[in-house]
Amino acid sequence: MKSKPTPELSSPHLQEDGLQAFIEKRRSLRIPLFILEVKWRQYNKVFIGQMQNISIGGLFMSTEHSVQSGERFPIEFVLPDNKTKVSCTGEVTWTRLYASEGAGSEGIGIRFLDLDDRKMKAIGQWIRKQETEKKKHA
Questions:
Q1: pTM of the entire structure?
Q2: For the chain, what is the domain count?
């Protein structure tokens, strides 16, 4: 499994409808999430990983399960609001192996392929709410 370097994160203004996220790579604000389970099916097996961050265009998930860049499979998770269940097809866009120097979690970057507009908007609203709360407490 090849590891690709992670590009710098940027946080321009989110589009209300979230469609711009698919036009330009890594332009969406990412919010850290910890211990949020993501289920996915691959080769007739169900796997569970822990989501580390999310944007309206995709997520990063810690997992020791070996997958290759370009693989596609159904994923499912519930946002921390405990109301919004998200199910869609995810595509692995990059992988990261564990580095003994402590450079981050082993895992995979996943792009949402067929996320419906309503769920995309819900994710965007949740992210904006988290950013607002973060600024209040800064």
A1: 0.69
A2: 1
Sign of the C-alpha dihedral computed for residues 78, 28, 117 and 123 taken in this order? positive
Whether 40 maps to a domain, the answer reads yes
Kindly report, residue by residue over 114-137, the tens digit of the pLDDT.
999 999 999 999 999 988 988 888
Residue 125 domain flag: yes
| Residue 4, domain member (yes or no) | no
Q: Which of 122, 79, 113 has the alpha carbon at shortest distance from 93?
A: 113
Q: At CA 46, angle to CA 86 and CA 98, rounded to 5?
A: 90
Q: What is the CATH number of the domain that holds 116?
A: 2.40.10.220
Residue where the block lists tokens 């590891």? 3
Top pLDDT among 32 and 55 is at 55
**Position 106, amino acid:** E
